[in-house]
Here is the input.
Amino acid sequence: MQKRNIIVNRLEKEHIEDTRVEIVERKGVGHPDSISDGVADAVSRALCREYIERFGTVMHHNTDETQLVAGQSRPKFGGGVVLEPIYMLLVGRATNHVGNESIPVAEIALNAAREYIRDTILNLDPDTQMTIECKYGEGSADLQSVFKNKTAIPGANDTSFGIGFAPFSEVEKLTLEAERWINSRDTKRRIPALGEDVKVMGLREDNRITLTVASSQVDKYVSGVEDYIENKEKVKENLEKIAPKITERPVDVVVNTGDIEKKGEEGLFLTVTGTSAENGDDGSVGRGNRVSGLITPGRPMSMEAASGKNPINHVGKIYNILAFRMADRIAREIGGVKEVEVQLLSQIGRPIDDPRVAYIKLMTDSDFALAQREAESIVEEMLANIKEVTDDVIHGRVRTF
Amino acid sequence: MQKRNIIVNRLEKEHIEDTRVEIVERKGVGHPDSISDGVADAVSRALCREYIERFGTVMHHNTDETQLVAGQSRPKFGGGVVLEPIYMLLVGRATNHVGNESIPVAEIALNAAREYIRDTILNLDPDTQMTIECKYGEGSADLQSVFKNKTAIPGANDTSFGIGFAPFSEVEKLTLEAERWINSRDTKRRIPALGEDVKVMGLREDNRITLTVASSQVDKYVSGVEDYIENKEKVKENLEKIAPKITERPVDVVVNTGDIEKKGEEGLFLTVTGTSAENGDDGSVGRGNRVSGLITPGRPMSMEAASGKNPINHVGKIYNILAFRMADRIAREIGGVKEVEVQLLSQIGRPIDDPRVAYIKLMTDSDFALAQREAESIVEEMLANIKEVTDDVIHGRVRTF
Amino acid sequence: MQKRNIIVNRLEKEHIEDTRVEIVERKGVGHPDSISDGVADAVSRALCREYIERFGTVMHHNTDETQLVAGQSRPKFGGGVVLEPIYMLLVGRATNHVGNESIPVAEIALNAAREYIRDTILNLDPDTQMTIECKYGEGSADLQSVFKNKTAIPGANDTSFGIGFAPFSEVEKLTLEAERWINSRDTKRRIPALGEDVKVMGLREDNRITLTVASSQVDKYVSGVEDYIENKEKVKENLEKIAPKITERPVDVVVNTGDIEKKGEEGLFLTVTGTSAENGDDGSVGRGNRVSGLITPGRPMSMEAASGKNPINHVGKIYNILAFRMADRIAREIGGVKEVEVQLLSQIGRPIDDPRVAYIKLMTDSDFALAQREAESIVEEMLANIKEVTDDVIHGRVRTF
Amino acid sequence: MQKRNIIVNRLEKEHIEDTRVEIVERKGVGHPDSISDGVADAVSRALCREYIERFGTVMHHNTDETQLVAGQSRPKFGGGVVLEPIYMLLVGRATNHVGNESIPVAEIALNAAREYIRDTILNLDPDTQMTIECKYGEGSADLQSVFKNKTAIPGANDTSFGIGFAPFSEVEKLTLEAERWINSRDTKRRIPALGEDVKVMGLREDNRITLTVASSQVDKYVSGVEDYIENKEKVKENLEKIAPKITERPVDVVVNTGDIEKKGEEGLFLTVTGTSAENGDDGSVGRGNRVSGLITPGRPMSMEAASGKNPINHVGKIYNILAFRMADRIAREIGGVKEVEVQLLSQIGRPIDDPRVAYIKLMTDSDFALAQREAESIVEEMLANIKEVTDDVIHGRVRTF
Here is the structure.
């Protein structure tokens, strides 16, 4: 192989922490868009594992489209009902014939989708409160190509790019952490009323940070308005306690600002299942968080929906994940790097370990030339080991949304 | 109430056992049409029970349309796969609001459908090998009408009729019994390979009876062609043993005449799940057995699909069931009755215990006038107790297909 | 070929006109079940024509399942709206690959369905007031089998039977004629308010006939309750004028007995499109009229849904049509025949011109032996020319519902 | 009203034209994601017009989710077939009851969707090559709120943000222009073979620009491989002619690099309808171009799907459009501005003409303080006239993708 085309440049812009306004958003795991992302990727992982078990390698598939159509519900203090199930349409394509062997793709997908829902949205029953339908295109592969797949570095499926940056700003960290706290198993045990549908908007205006949190509650664990308000208070208090661990800036936390408490059930973010998908909020893959876990308009972003794409040759997935990993390692390992951005550009058919260009931008207060060399070497090494990304995706060790 | 309009007449025709040709058919519980019937009625029963528990009475609903769209499968000796799930569309309407209370109709329906499938088609997994979707129209009721419902005799929902006859002919009994044997729990334990998709065609030409049986087998319990053939033999032998208990006429049993054994898996009635709905055979409510459990072109028949209709005021269900019960009781209780046909005609809005006309035709070799009076009295009494039909339907004590 | 197995026997029963009660029903072309039947058969005919044009012969298909899910509408004097479209699911299977050639089955089906709707339900727009979805299984054929198909008599697709009778009773004729009049182009021109959704129930009690007619009206042609009532009167008057041409018995005509006029729009059979499928009434293939055009519980009936079945080897279609044609010809051509019933029983794989048994029952007041011979010869001849049925179906010269 | 919160700051970063690598992408109008965007917005516009006609104001709706599921096709030189229709699921919610009046939302939507497809994808027939299904949630409004809507400035529907920048870089202009040329009516007249499914990837490496174009062709206008290659050449030549009007940098144009010409039909970007949605490529709203018409990872971007959102109070739509308009005007009207970025942050419930913060960043080589004042005044004015955005959206004068 020729030398890889790696360009390392200075990142010339205002440091993210020095900007006057910074906006960051995270949609929690129970947000309809995130549910779509999560199911799409769970299905892909399940297919990967099945393919590997049967053929020793992953066969072609992309399950990166999922449309979630909101149901209808009647939340009620003490426990309401879902009147119309959430409809989830799984879209994509997958290899279901290899040589003479048939793979029950839909069975695997439906199973993975249901398991993911059960594990993630604790109060949503995928069997009776959802309808899950597969519309997967079929594909077939011959055994020869299977053997070829096992050894070679795959060619990029498309001309596309991946983007990453590091390190996370304080607002970014806070935004991520706020949702993580609400949706941690530990919090759910202590405050079972908190649903998984959470949206956190982090805003920094100069030095003042505001976390605007929309946090659903599950009706059967809420006895009335007072109980609901108390739960909101708990969220506020806990997040206010977490903030100082991340930033010295003053942080305001506001929870469910849209509530009109005097309206009772109807005026609150009260749900039967913990997600607004039960009543009025649709969702689909790729419209929410990036692989950073965040939406960051002040940072470079890719539009690719990573969730559900195959982790073998789909650069829209692999390069976005890898770009973040590269940025992270560069920021952590190279002294004096304040900010780094990574762009990886593929060319259709070209081996994925050899992008058309890997473009790294560094903001550093130390010797740039040195940092440049170190960054180049990190990027070289990580491209050479690009299959680690694939492995980590398959084993669920990577966040895609 | 005025006297009911009951007419009892002579049944003037050749006795069914004297006809030269008699044709009877039964679609087993795993036939796609029967699955549709069974699910439709299971849903209605579940709704009835829910309504009664909540409101003390059954609210309006009809879940009597179900479209089953075949999936795709690849059966294989030792165990194949379902490639594309069976799609089941539940159609109908049901009351989901009573006063301020909401009833999760779809949840109840999806649950009932899945349970029915699990109990009935032992090797079909409704969660991963089927997609079940509800398209129920909504309805609401106010509390006043609920109270009214509890006491009054309901008015007929439509101008319609029910038909029954008795007793069953030998061919009818044989046809029913053949399927019952194949699909009994006991047989399934002894020959687990036998699937629930069964079709029995009984034909009598003069005194010779032929039972043509199509009986699916479940691939994971079948090691190869020989095993398959052996299972067919067992069906044949057992049915031949049963026949003499029902008739003295000679009975030929033929099983899976369409098989082309040399073709292997593809030439046989081999399935992954026990029903041909997995690959190519669609089904819907009301296209199969009548409430007699049979299709009997030589007998009067109603076209009404009884399964899934509400058992409160839907005469298409109630009158068909009642007509058979009347016929049966008349045939059993009145001496000398060789054959009886019952027709019940409703008039929209008129109380269901007072049909526009109850028309009974008797073939008797004893005193007709006496039989006539007895029949009239039986019909009177059974109309007066018509709510028993409703109760029996709700508690699953009535066959609707 | 061996001599065909034709049995001609006496029909021993009370003559239909002598029975004390006779019930007959017809669902008009705009009834949801009939719409399903009509579309299913229109699609099959369109496929037949396409196959013949491309390959000189009809390829395998069955489009005999259609589920119609009611929409939601708000009829209003002067013109209301359809709020939720009628959903129509076309189910079945069809050959879409012959050798290397691909046939756009779904395109043909969607086109045929839309055309049929436009031609039949004048005020229903299939493009914006319906959603039509195809779920057809695929099939392929090789060119050799195509050539074979062209010449041979096909083998029966199943063990099944067809049933026919003749001549029609007075009530049967009246019932048919009543709907025919309402849905004739001429009537529609004169009374455009009359919708195609019509249900006629004919009841004869001894000599008194009652026609109970449910006849929809199209709101944009109805200015108010008075106008609506006037239209009902016109139906009544016209049908009362037609009756004496068919019977000398007294005939009562009642129209829309369920109307509660004081309730205005909601209390009437008022529609936006002319069919109750727009709001609350689902439908599917094979649940309505038999190939006689009627539901006749007092006559032998087949449960087979003829509409949409292929007219080449599907005996559930061909034998039912042929049985009625045979009965009709026997009744018309053989002197003294008062009533005739025909049963045709197929055996899977056996050439369709050679049924396992053709069983004819005659009620005649002339020489039975002579009639027997004549009937046998008619049946022989019509079996020999069975392909005429196929041709007539393809060219739309046969009623299937 | 208090003074609006407008912050104008320096944009401190490398000028876009000075970066070493720049990547830009545009999905053409026939790309599956763009089709979804286009239909979603066409439906919203149609609803807006209907609401205005009936009520003088726009009622609540969001039709911003559309899932497109690929069909199956067999392209062939001279004309192939679509075997399985493209399935399009329209998702969202809309007001269908205002006071006593009902609005046929689905009718309007289906009509708008079909018209849009017909106008945009010239060789795709939405009636027979697509299935379009609506799953819209319902909504109702009372007449009082209607009157209120007419006068007041609406409150923001959510806490969200809009992002814009200006002026476009050379690569951005080129990328936009390349697709515009291919999909212009004029080009279609001259080269009817060119389908609407186009993807342009613009890459600048230092001073060298590469336009990678994927451009579908419509099979019925292509006689064979040579013809196909000739059409590709025409695209290349024409785009090479356009480039010098936009940039002095050298521009390489490569078209359909994935083609394997020796494979014939299968190796090319050949389609029956002009879009890859016919075979294997799914799409959905909000996964493609931003309101800039581009995907620009080197620029700040919003993740909001603007298409289909209501233009009254949905800041995810209005603020993104307005931010671009502000940026554009600032760049054009203020002397010396080299680059500008605009961020508008809403707060749920707060009037949309008064964002929580309007944050403008300027790169200017003239007096910053002066530019700052001018920018502030432009932003003030444009916020005061925010309803112009709404008007322009309704009348189709705004690009949303």
